Amino acid sequence: MSDQTTEPADNTPPPSQVPAAENFRLLVEAVDDYAIFMLDPAGHVASWNPGARKMKGYEAAEILGRHFSVFHTPEDVSAGQPGLELASAATHGRYESEGWRVRKDGSKFWANVIVTAIRDDHGTLRGFAKVTQDLTERRRLAELEQIRRFSSHIQAAREEEQARIARELHDDLGQQLTALKMALADLDGMLEAQPVEPARASASLRDMHRLIDVSVASLRRIVAGLRPIAIETLGLVPALDWLTEDFSRRYGVSVEFQAALDDLTLSDAAAATLFHIVQEALTNVARHARASRVDIDLSARDGACLLRIEDDGQGMRSDARANTRSFGLMGMRERVDRLDGTLVIDGASGRGVRIAIAIPLTGILAPGTDAR
Questions:
Q1: Is the predicted pLDDT of residue 39 greater than 90, yes or no?
Q2: Residue 299, φ and ψ in degrees, nearest 5
Q3: pLDDT digits (tens, 9 = 90+) for 230-286
Q4: Which residues pair with 57 in a beta bridge?
C-alpha cells in the first residue's frame, strides 16, 4: 500500500477552456472605475456591474428592471433626452455625449456616456450596452485651469491698462500742463517788465485758456476710458455715439453705429459691460485690423439684446481664431459669459472680422422694465 497522500483534484478549467461569455462577464465584474451595464430595447436596466454600483449608488436589486432615465436630470427627462439617446444609438449604432447625471442620493456628477446598440445575427435589436465614466474631477480641474487663465488675462489686461493710462497722462495731459506752465512763466515775466504789453499779455492769457480747455478734454477722455460716465448721465446709446465718434476722429476709421433698443432700459451693469465690449472691439480694430470701416449694430429682438461689430480689415488667421486669447477676445468672452450670453466670431483671413453677441434680455433689463 502506497504511503503517498492523494491531493484533491482541481476541476477548474484553464483560461483557454472558459467560455467567452464567462470571460466577458468576469471582465465586466472586475471593472469598478466605469459603470458598465445592459439595457433592454425599451431602456430598462438588465445588468449591473460593481462600477455602476460604486458610481451611481444603487444595488443591483434596487435598479434592475427600472428605466435608465432615472440617471438623468429632471430637465433632461422633460426634454426627452433619454429617448433621444436610445433612438440615436439604434439608428447610428452608437451614441456618445457628456453631461450631468444623477446618483441615487440626488447628487450630480459630470459623465461621459457611450450607448451602443446590440443586435443579433439577424439584425434584430436586443438591447443596448451603456458605459459611463465619471469626469467630475477632470471637469473641476479644467474649470480651475480656466479660472487661472482668466486671472492671468485679467492681470495682464490690468497692467496693460495701467501702462496705457500712464502713456496718455505723460504724452497728452503732461505735455499740455507743461505748456501751460511755460505760458504762465511767460506771463509772469511780462508782468514784471515795465511797461506791460497789453496785446502780448492778452494773447498769452488766450493761449492758457486754450491749453486749459484741451487739458480738461483730455482728462475727460482718459476718465471715460476708465469709467463710462456718459452712460450714467446720458445712457448707453449716447455713450456709444460719443465712443464711436471719438474713435473715428482719433484713428481715421469710419464707424457706422446704429441702435434700436425699442426704448428698453438696460441695467447699469449691463450697459457698462456692452460699452466696454464695443470699446475693446474698437481697440482690437485699431491694433490689428488695418480696417477703413467698422459697422456696429445694437438691437433688441426675440427676447435678446443683439450686438454686431463688423470691420473690413485683414481678418484673422485660422490659428488665431482657434485661440480665444488672440486679439484680446478673451476679455470680451468673459464679459459676455457673465451676462449668460453667447459670442460668435467669424474672421476669415482677408475678409474682416464679424463679432455677433446675443444676451437674454431677462437678465440685463433695469428694474421695472418689461422685455417686449
A1: yes
A2: -150, 170
A3: 566 678 888 899 889 988 988 999 999 999 987 788 888 888 889 889 988 998 898
A4: none
Picking from 352, 211, 341, the residue whose alpha carbon sits closest to that of residue 294 is 352
Question: Dihedrals φ, ψ of 331, to 5°?
Answer: -60, -45
Question: Starting from the edge strand earliest in sequence, which strands make up the sheet with 94-102, in order?
Answer: 34-39, 125-134, 108-119, 94-102
Burial label for 116, CB within 10 Å (0-12, 13-18, 19+), is middle
Q: Give the whole-angstrom CA distance, residue 297 versus residue 306.
A: 8
What is the secondary structure of 144-196 as a DSSP string? HHHHHHHHHHHHHHHHHHHHHHHHHIIIIIIHHHHHHHHHHHHHHHHHHSSS-
295-325: b or e for each residue (b if 16 or more CB lie within 10 Å)?
A: bbebebeeebbbbbbbbbbbbbeeebbeebe
pLDDT of amino acid 370: 64
* pLDDT, tens digit (0-9, with 9 covering 90-100), for 325-372: 444 577 788 889 888 899 988 877 678 899 999 999 988 988 766 655
SS3 state of residue 248: helix
354 bridge partner residues:
310, 346
Pairing mode, strands 254-260 and 293-301: parallel
Q: What are the φ and ψ backbone dihedral angles of 4, each rounded to 5 degrees?
A: -75, 140
The number of beta carbons lying within 10 Å of the beta carbon of residue 261 is 15
Q: Which amino acid is at 158?
A: R
Q: CA 367 from chain center: how many Å?
A: 26
**Tens digits of residue pLDDT in 55-83:** 999 999 999 999 999 999 999 999 999 99
Give pLDDT tens digits for 110-156.
999 999 999 999 999 999 999 999 999 988 888 888 777 777 766 77
Distance in angstroms (rounded) separating the CA atoms of residues 62 and 244: 65
For 34, 39, 126, 306, the CA distances from 117, given in Å and listed in that order, are 18, 9, 8, 43
Spatial separation of the C-alpha atoms in residues 147 and 372, rounded to whole Å: 35
Beta strand ranges found along 15-65 (DSSP E): 34-39
* CA–centroid distance for 129 within its chain: 35
Statement: the pTM of the whole predicted model exceeds 0.90: no
Is the pLDDT at 33 greater than 70? The verdict is yes
